[in-house]
Structure formats: C-alpha cells, structure tokens
Amino acid sequence: MALCKGGRNVTILKVSARSKATAVAGAIAGVIRDVGHAEVQAIGAGAVNQAAKAVAIARSYLALDGIDVICIPAFADVIIADQQRTALKFVVEPR
Amino acid sequence: MALCKGGRNVTILKVSARSKATAVAGAIAGVIRDVGHAEVQAIGAGAVNQAAKAVAIARSYLALDGIDVICIPAFADVIIADQQRTALKFVVEPR
C-alpha cells in the first residue's frame, strides 16, 4: 500500500494484491477522519478484492465513530512505467 | 450471473469471475430502476473484481437517467454445498 497526494487535496491509497485489508482499512479510516474523503486505487483482480474488503472493514471502524461511509467505484487511467493501465478506484466519503 | 430473491424484497445478483461486467451492469441498472435497490454478491477475487467493475459501469448507465447510485461493500456469510463461505456484497442504492 502506498499513500500519495492526488489533485483537489485528495489522498490516494494505492492497494496491491499483497496489501493487508485490515491495514488498508486503518489507513482509509485515518484519512476519512483527517480530511473526510479518500480514494483507494487498485489494478487487477487481487488488488480490487483487497481494496473492496478494506472499504468494508473501514466502514466498521468508522461506524464506531458514528461516521457512515459509502463508496463510489469508477475507472481511472493511470500511467505505470510509461504504460497506460486502467485502474479501479473507490472514492470513499461520508454518506 | 444469477438473480435470486433475498429478504426485504431485495434482488441479489450473484456474480462469478466469468460474469461479463457489462451484462451484470445492465442487470444492476434494471433492478435499480425497478425496485430502487440491488445487492451484488461475489465470492473470490475474480468475482469481486467483476462485481466492482459492474457497479462502476452501472453508475454510468444510471447517470443517463439522472440516477446517482452509491455502493456499500459488506461481508456476508453464505452457505454453498453445505459449506460456509464469506462473500463480499455490494449494496447499490441511490445516493
């Protein structure tokens, strides 16, 4: 998992198939608490699976703080090693 | 992909790794237009990937009707061939 700054002051969490879902969930919850909005980006089935599980777990973490988050899946074009790839991103924000 | 009736008059769309994302997206959009609420259920990374892509595509279909949908990922225990498995479900509903 890697954190980087996107546009509009959005923190993008890059998730791989080897990312631990609970660790990503903790990061999502932290970013939501800090700035109220997070983007989780994944390329490939294994990474998307970890990202989706992480959002489900983050929901339970944030519910303890009374924060009810929803997610919006969308495609995103990203450049990796000069190659264009299609990522799936989950925008996570309070309902 | 299989459609079945869940509780609370909810239609559950069961997605596999071999499901076509655009076909699932069309089914999600149809269910949302009909009853305003759908659940997409997937077991395994390949299935979760197809389900997440389908929700992203369904969002674009429904946006054409002026319907802005969000999704809520959650874990669900399901019984398959007398074995308990953990599925990931995406609840899809208007924002």
Describe, in plain words, how this protein is organized in 3D.
The structure is a homodimer of 95-residue chains. Chain A has 95 residues and is an alpha+beta fold. In chain A, 36% of the residues lie in helices and 40% in strands. The first copy, chain A, has a 5-stranded mixed sheet with strand order 1-2-3-5-4. In chain A, strand 1 and strand 2 (11-15) form a beta hairpin. At the A-B interface, helix 2 and strand 4 of A face helix 2 and strand 4 of B.
How many strands appear in the DSSP assignment of chain A?
Answer: 5
Q: Rounded to an integer, what's the Rg of chain A over CA atoms?
A: 12 Å
Sheet of most strands of chain A? 5 strands, mixed
Shape of chain A: globular
Order of helices and strands of chain A: EEHEHEE
Weakly predicted, low-confidence segments of chain A: none
Determine the strand fraction of chain A and express it as a percent band.
35-45%
| Helical content class of chain A | 25-40%
Mean pLDDT of chain A: 93
Instruction: Tell me the structural class of chain A.
Output: alpha+beta
How far apart the termini of chain A lie comes to 25 Å
How large is the count of helical segments of chain A?
A: 2
Oligomer: homodimer
Largest interface, with counts of residues having CB < 8 Å to the other chain, equals:
A-B, 20 and 20 residues
Arrangement of strands in the largest sheet of chain A: 1-2-3-5-4
